[in-house]
Prior knowledge:
GO terms for molecular function: structural constituent of ribosome. This protein is α+β, with helices and mostly antiparallel strands. It contains 2 helices and 5 strands; from the N terminus they run ββββαβα. The protein has one domain (2-77): CATH 3.30.1320.10. It has a 5-stranded mixed beta sheet. A hairpin with a 2-residue loop joins β1 (2-11) and β2 (14-23).
Amino acid sequence: MIKIRLARHGSKKRPFYQIVLSDVRSSRNGKFIEKLGFFNPITSKKEEQTSYNLERIKYWLKIGAKMSKKVKTILKKK
């Protein structure tokens, strides 16, 4: 099964997340199929916190990929 989820990057106490498409069997920060965007929870409200490729997300959802709960909430806010 393929899932759209977050992969954590950044240093200690300064998280930065990439929105990636990966197999459910791979680890959180492990091998992924495609990078679809990013989410930065630390930035101020004026700066852009998320950026993603909506066309590719729609394509993968049509094929049968599932989204994690956190990715759903991030996409709903924007």
